[in-house]
Amino acid sequence: MTPVAFELTIGCHLSTAAGWKKMGETALALGANTFAFFTRNPRGGNAKTLDLDDLEALKTLMRENHFGKLVAHAPYTMNLCSAKYETVDFARRAMAEDLERMEYLPGNYYNFHPGSHVGQGAEKGVKLVIEGLNACLVPGQATMVLLETMAGKGTEVGRTFEELAAILDGVAHDELLGVCLDTCHVHDGGYRIFDSLDYVLDEFDRIIGLERLKALHLNDSKNPCGAHKDRHEKIGQGYLGLDAFASIVTNSRLRTLPMILETPQDFDGYKHEIALLRRIAAADNQTHESALGGVR
Ligand code: FE
Ligand code: FE
Ligand code: ZN
C-alpha cells in the first residue's frame, strides 16, 4: 500500500472583489488549499453585504477539495490600542462586526495586528488590546481570533512573545485566542528563525505555549534580523533565505499549520512559491517514509 502523501495546507492572500466562490476557485488554480482575505478594505471602511448563496458555494468547494482552515485578516487600520477614543471605538465595532460575519463561515481563523500604542507605552497598549478583545469576543463563537506576531515597527504591540503572552493572559475568554506567527515579522523583531528555528520555537513554547500557535504567515524579509522594519520579500530572496523556509515547512511542530504567503507576488509568483514549498515538504516526507521502510 502506498502511504498517503503528506500535504501542506498552504495558500496566499486573495481579493474578495469577485466574491467567495471565486476566491476558492482562484486558490485551486494556484495549487492552494487555504487562503487569506481582508474582511473589509484594509484601509478601513465598511464591509460588503454578505451573499449567502455565494458563501455556501465556497463552503461546498472547500469541502470537496479538502481545504484547511482559512485565515481571514482584519484591516491594518484597526488599532485597538490607539490613544484616540474614536479610533479604539472604530476598531472594536469593526472587530465585533467582522466576528459576527465570520459566523457565516464557521470554524476558521480571524487574524489581526494587536495595534500600535502610539507612545502610551507597551504596557498601556497591552491593557487596551485586552479590553478591546474582552469587549468583542463572544463566548461560544465559531471563530478563533489570532494575534499576529509583529515586527516592532514604530510603537507596534506584539513585538515580543512576552507581550503576546500578556495579552493572552488578560483576556477572559482566552480559549477563543491563538497566535499567527509571521516569519518576516519575528525575524525583523529579532528572533533568529533563519538559523535557530528550534530554539525560537522552544522560546515560543516556554513563553506562550506552542498549543497557541495556529497559523503561519510565510514571508521573506528585505531587512536583517532585528531591523524592526516589516518589509516583506519573495520566498528565498531576502534575509531569511530558502533554507529557512525549507526548515519551516518540514518542521514537525509547524508543518501541519495553515501557511499563508503575503509575499510581493502576482498569481504566477504565488503559484510558483506554493509549488516550491509543496515540493520541499513532499521530498522531506518521502525521506522519512523510506527511512521507516528501511527499519521495517
Ligand atoms: Fe498581518
Ligand atoms: Fe502578516
Ligand atoms: Zn508584515
Précis, in short:
This protein has 296 residues and is an alpha/beta fold. The protein has helices spanning 20-29, 52-64, 85-102, 122-136, 161-170, 183-188, 197-207, 241-249, 267-295, and strands spanning 10-12, 71-73, 109-112, 144-148, 177-182, 213-218, 220-221, 232-233, 259-261.
Molecular structure report:
With about 300 residues, the protein is α/β, with parallel strands linked by helices. It has a single domain (about 10-295), classed as TIM Barrel (Alpha-Beta Barrel), CATH 3.20.20.150. It contains 9 helices and 9 strands. The protein has helices at about 20-30, 50-65, 85-100, 120-135, 160-170, 185-190, 195-205, 240-250, 265-295; strands at about 10, 70-75, 110, 145-150, 175-180, 215-220, 220, 230-235, 260. A 7-stranded parallel beta sheet has the order 1-9-6-5-4-3-2. It has a two-stranded antiparallel ribbon with strand order 7-8. Strand 4 (about 145-150), helix 5 (about 160-170) and strand 5 (about 175-180) form a beta-alpha-beta unit. The chain is globular, with a radius of gyration of 19 Å. The relative contact order is 0.13. The mean pLDDT is about 95. Bound molecules: fe (iii) ion (2 copies) and zinc ion. One fe (iii) ion binds next to loops.
